[in-house]
Amino acid sequence: MVKAPTGTDAETEDLTALAPWLERWGLTADGAAIVTPSSKLLPVRRAGEPAMLKAAMHPEETLGQRLLGWWDGAGAVRLLEAEDDAVLLERAIGERSLADMARSDRDDEAMAILCDTAGRLHAARPQPPPTTLVPLERWFRELQPGAAKHGGVLQKSLAVSRTLLAQQQEVRPLHGDIHHDNVLDGGARGWLAIDPKGVLGDRGYDYANMICNPWGASFLEPARIDHRVDLVAERSGLGRTRLLRWLLAYAGLSAAWTLYGDWEGDARPALRIAEIAAGLLESA
User: Fold this and answer.
1) What pLDDT score was predicted for residue 261?
2) In this structure, are residues 222 and 279 in contact, taking their beta carbons and an 8 Å threshold?
3) Three-state DSSP class for 87?
4) What does the DSSP 8-state code read for residue 177?
C-alpha cells in the first residue's frame, strides 16, 4: 500500500473523489487516505464507530465486495454499505499483526490463525454464493504463457495445476489472497479477513497462498517451508501431498503473474517456493 501523506495534493484529490459517500453515509474522516493499485481507502467514523470507506478502481475489488456481503461478518469484516464501486466496511482496529508474529518466533501461531480463518470462510452457508465468483480455472490461464516463456519449474507448476483443476475437491467460494496482511485483529470479533478477490474453486488454493507469505529470506528456507506444509496440512485436513501440489501450482502462478502479468515485484521468492515444493513432492 502507498499511504498519501497528510496535506498533499494527492490526498486532497483522493478525499474529493470519496466526498460523495462521506456525505451520503454520514461519515467523518479518521485518518489519511490510502491508495493502492486497485482502490482508494479512507479510515472514517460513523456515529463514533470506526469504519473504512473504500472506492474500487479494479473490477476484481467489486467481486470481492459481493463475497464480503455473503460472508456477513463470519470470518471477515462486515459490509456495512455498498453503492456502485464504493463500500463502507467494518474497520479492524486491534493492534496484533500476523506478519509481526511470524517474524518474532510465533510463526506457528500465525499460521494456525490463518488456517482457522480460512476454515470459517469456507464453511457451508444456507444461502447460495454470489453468481459473479470467478472460476479458479480462469485465474490459471496466465500460467501457460508464463511457463512457455520461462520453462523450468513453471512447467512443473503448469502440469500439476492442470491435474488439480481437472480434479477439484471441496469447491468453495475462496478468498483468493489470504495471507498475513489480509487477516486483521478485530478485537472481540476475533481475526477478520479483508480484501477477498471473489474466486470459486478447490479450497486447497487458499491454504497454499498463506504458506507463501510474508516474504523474507528466512521464510524461503526449505526446512521452514516443509514445517509450514506439515502444520497447514494437519490443521486444514487437506493432507500433505494435496497441499504440496497446490503450493507448487500457486507459487508458479504467482511467479508468472509477476514475470509476465500486471503485478510489480520480484518473482524470485515465488520461484524459489515452487522449486522447494517440487522437490518435496519428488522426495515424498
Assistant:
1) 66
2) yes
3) strand
4) S
pLDDT, tens digit (0-9, with 9 covering 90-100), for 215-239: 777 889 999 999 999 999 999 999 9
The whole-model pTM stands at: 0.91
Catalytic residue, chosen from 14, 30, 107, 177, is 177
Peptide bond into 214 cis (omega under 30): yes
Positive/negative CA dihedral, 242, 248, 250, 251: positive
* Rg (the chain; Cα; Å): 19
Amino acid, single-letter form, for residue 176 = G
Give Cβ neighbours of residue 133 (< 8 Å, ≥ 6 apart). 63, 67, 173, 198, 199, 200
Please write the tens of the pLDDT for every residue from 158-191.
999 999 999 999 999 999 999 999 999 999 999 9
Cβ neighbours, 10 Å, residue 226: 17
Cα–Cα dist 241/181, whole Å: 26
Distance CA 84, CA 47 (A): 23
Task: Output DSSP code: residue 188.
Answer: G
Check if 177 is active-site.
yes
For 271, the enclosing helix (H) or strand (E) is helix 268-283
Q: Can you spell out the DSSP letters for 219-265? A: GG-HHHHHHHHHHHHHHHT--HHHHHHHHHHHHHHHHHHHHHSS--S
Collapse the DSSP code of 153 into the 3-class scheme (helix H, G, I; strand E, B; otherwise coil) and give the result.
Answer: helix
**Could you give the domains of the chain?**
2-90 (3.30.200), 98-283 (3.90.1200.10)
Cell of 148: 512457455
Asked if 68 contacts 196 with a C-beta cutoff of 8 angstroms, the reply is yes
C-alpha distances out from residue 241 to 27, 122, 174, 229, Å: 49, 20, 20, 9
